[in-house]
């Protein structure tokens, strides 16, 4: 082995060992299949359980049997533009109440976000983003984005957003950023997720648009809405939370990203934007220009999933999973209170959805994503190397055969470790009830150990 190779190996090993010591080393989980019966899946993003739907399975096979093209795509869409892909774009434009010329397919939501944020913001512009925005937006901002400034604000906090925007408008630097924003010669892009993947919370879209209208009256403020975890679950026919709030076609929403790989159990994504932005991205978005397009098979599968949205199948499944979320959250909170398990040991969700406000009963206030936050050890009675999130996950797996993975830094901020629960329409009431039982049992064990001064060192994952 050469000295260069040896030095490289040493550097890589040292970095990975550092992560292992801090309990943040990532590994691929054991191989599994969607129909595995050994454990109950509360981890995957198959919210509507379409990946195991016999109806969708049979519909896809029938469609494929009548399809002229199935394998491959022929190359980048700038070299070949398969009619299969073109027809899906036409269909999506109609489905999402959008213009055909502003509807653009991508191989993934990640590619779409990188493409938009690396190309569309121009020199002198500003990108303001929610602190919990997806990594793909950050990577887009690092991949050639020419915006003059990038600033974050507190998650879903309009007061923080207003403070950030007012600070930008008041800037009086030599480049005149504040003046340009005030007179409309520079643009501001506001990046949010309509449903946050780690928290299950919702961006206050109407309030944010109103902030843009109030503070940027020259109409140079644009909202970019990532609907990855909302598509298929919310709004008419599952068109997302933008549609749910009656904001389709709003001039301040410059782009919506809808992905197919989560609730729709397919692959790919679409950006809904203006025809001009779509033409610009077709010329400059490297993940689009230099990537072989999705295969015909992937496009046909996505189209079959949209059949489920249009015929009402997905709507019934969405109602089921959101209703289950409401029941699970309520039951778990009530049982934790009854057992006097304080939030210093376990907290259900980022927001308190158990308020007595009547509108809280609406399913639209609930999400299939429910984080079980496991705060750091509250005292020296717990071993500092002990990870509550890993232990809760291990407890659920070993005793209840429930698969719910721990999420830790750097995926989430330090101090916000959690087990993220993802509910599916295919879960039974008995399975969800067992999840409640397992979580409460673990909470009692942890609270008792701390109160009795015993050191918890167990970690089986």
From TrEMBL:
Enumerate the Gene3D superfamilies for this protein. Answer: Aspartate Aminotransferase, domain 1 (3.90.1150.10), Type I PLP-dependent aspartate aminotransferase-like (Major domain) (3.40.640.10)
Q: Which InterPro entries match?
A: Aminotransferase_I/II_large (IPR004839), AON_synthase_class-II (IPR050087), PyrdxlP-dep_Trfase (IPR015424), PyrdxlP-dep_Trfase_major (IPR015421), PyrdxlP-dep_Trfase_small (IPR015422)
Keyword Transferase, does the record have it?
yes
Taxonomically, which superkingdom? Eukaryota
Aminotransferase class I/classII large domain segment(s): 38-437
What GO terms in the biological process aspect are recorded for it? biotin biosynthetic process
One GO MF term attached to the UniProt entry: transferase activity
Q: Which SUPFAM superfamilies match?
A: PLP-dependent transferases (SSF53383)
Q: Has keyword GTP-binding?
A: no
The cofactors required by this protein are: pyridoxal 5'-phosphate
Q: Which UniProt keywords apply?
A: Pyridoxal phosphate, Transferase
Q: Where is the signal peptide?
A: none
Instruction: Report the family membership.
Output: Belongs to the class-II pyridoxal-phosphate-dependent aminotransferase family. BioF subfamily.
Protein name per its UniProtKB record: Aminotransferase class I/classII large domain-containing protein
Species name for this entry?
Marasmius oreades
């Amino acid at each position: 082995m050469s000295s260069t190779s040896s030095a490289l190996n040493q550097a890589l090993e040292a970095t990975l060992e550092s992560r292992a010591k801090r309990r943040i080393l990532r590994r691929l989980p054991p191989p599994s299949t969607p129909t595995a019966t050994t454990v109950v899946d509360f981890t995957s993003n198959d919210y509507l359980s379409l990946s195991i739907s016999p109806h969708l399975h049979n519909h896809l096979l029938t469609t494929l049997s009548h399809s002229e093209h199935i394998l491959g795509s022929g190359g980048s869409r700038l070299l070949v533009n398969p009619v299969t892909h073109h027809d899906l774009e036409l269909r999506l434009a109609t489905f999402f109440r959008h213009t055909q010329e502003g509807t653009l397919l991508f191989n993934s939501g990640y590619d779409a976000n990188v493409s938009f944020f690396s190309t569309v913001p121009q020199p002198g512009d500003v990108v303001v983003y929610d602190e919990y925005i997806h990594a793909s937006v950050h990577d887009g901002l690092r991949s050639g984005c020419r915006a003059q400034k990038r600033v974050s604000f507190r998650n879903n906090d309009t007061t923080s957003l207003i403070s950030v925007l007012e600070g930008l408008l008041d800037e009086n630097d030599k480049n005149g950023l504040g003046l340009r924003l005030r007179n409309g010669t520079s643009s501001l892009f506001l990046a949010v997720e309509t449903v946050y993947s780690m928290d299950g919370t919702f961006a206050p879209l109407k309030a944010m648009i109103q902030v843009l209208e109030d503070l940027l009256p020259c109409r140079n403020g644009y909202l970019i809405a990532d609907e990855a975890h909302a598509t298929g679950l919310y709004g008419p026919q599952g068109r997302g939370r933008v549609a749910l709030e009656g904001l389709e076609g709003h001039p301040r929403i410059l782009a919506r990203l809808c992905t197919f790989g989560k609730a729709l159990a397919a692959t790919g994504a679409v950006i809904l934007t203006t025809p001009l932005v779509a033409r610009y991205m077709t010329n400059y978005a490297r993940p689009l220009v230099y990537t072989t397009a999705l295969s015909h098979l992937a496009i046909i599968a996505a189209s079959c999933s949209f059949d489920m949205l249009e015929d009402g199948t997905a709507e019934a499944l969405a109602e089921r999973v959101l209703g289950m979320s409401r029941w699970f959250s309520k039951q778990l909170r009530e049982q934790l209170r009854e057992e006097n398990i304080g939030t210093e040991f376990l907290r259900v969700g980022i927001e308190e959805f158990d308020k007595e406000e009547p509108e809280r009963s609406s399913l639209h206030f609930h999400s299939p994503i429910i984080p079980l936050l496991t705060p750091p050890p509250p005292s020296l009675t717990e071993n500092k190397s002990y990870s509550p999130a890993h232990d809760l996950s291990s407890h659920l797996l070993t005793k209840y055969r429930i698969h719910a993975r721990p999420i830790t830094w750097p995926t989430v901020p330090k101090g916000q470790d959690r087990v993220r629960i993802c509910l599916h329409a295919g879960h039974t009431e008995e399975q969800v009830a067992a999840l409640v039982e397992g979580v409460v049992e673990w909470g009692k064990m942890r609270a008792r150990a701390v109160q009795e001064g015993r050191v918890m060192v167990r970690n089986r994952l």
